[in-house]
Design a protein that fits this description.
By secondary structure, the protein is α/β, with parallel strands linked by helices. The protein contains five helices and six strands, in the order αβαβαβαβαββ. It has a single domain, classed as 3-Layer(aba) Sandwich (Rossmann fold), CATH 3.40.50. The chain has a six-stranded mixed beta sheet with strand order 3-2-4-1-5-6, sandwiched between helices. Helix 2 packs parallel to helix 3 (94-103). The radius of gyration is 17 Å and the shape is globular.
């Protein structure tokens, strides 16, 4: 019985710690000096099909019904945590663009630097530079109180942060001058 109680206490402690850590990340986004890198919501498959065209969503991997619900739920989480408006930038890929719009945090700016380079790995440094420039412009504009949300792809997030995110996961980066540090991750709620 003591072992069971000790196990329950440990589980409760870990759950409380995770909730507290997530609350701190939402607070950091509200207060500024942090940005949210978000992988697009669930879009089954990997990469894009042969014949992919940027101007035709029918040729791309798109959000599933579950992905659309996931994106809307993430937008609700932003609002539930005190963020009703954000400077939202997205990749021009339909799955990222649709995720960003379904968040309903404000107008979405399409940013080519957030486009996937999955099929063109040689473009990684250009995309990383574009993402860093977008972050720097936002910080220089002193837009504290209006967080920057960048909806992009796994390869882009991994290149910038070193983190391999799940679909719909948010990686919170702390901006310290030119340096970016992973402050934490916000995943799906249980």
């Amino acid at each position: 019985m003591k072992a069971l109680l000790a196990g329950l206490a440990l589980l409760l402690s870990a759950t409380t710690f995770a909730a507290t850590a997530e609350e701190a990340l939402w607070k950091a986004l509200r207060e500024g000096g942090h940005v949210a890198l978000m992988r697009h919501a669930v879009a089954p498959g990997v990469g894009d099909p042969p014949g992919f065209r940027l101007d035709d969503c029918a040729t791309q991997r798109n959000l599933s019904a579950a992905g659309r619900r996931q994106a809307q739920a993430i937008g609700e989480r932003f609002r539930a945590n005190g963020i009703a408006q954000a400077a939202v930038h997205a990749s021009r890929w339909c799955r990222a663009r649709d995720t960003a719009r379904l968040l309903a945090l404000g107008p979405v700016t399409l940013s080519p630097g957030l486009d996937s380079f999955f099929g063109a790995r040689s473009a990684e440094s250009d995309h990383v530079a574009a993402m860093r420039a977008l972050i720097a412009r936002h910080v220089l504009a002193a837009r504290d109180g209006v967080p920057l949300v960048m909806v992009t792809h796994q390869v882009n997030i991994t290149a910038l942060s070193g983190v391999f995110p799940a679909s719909g996961e948010i990686i919170v980066l702390r901006v310290a001058g030119d340096a970016l540090h992973v402050a934490g991750r916000i995943g799906e709620q249980d």
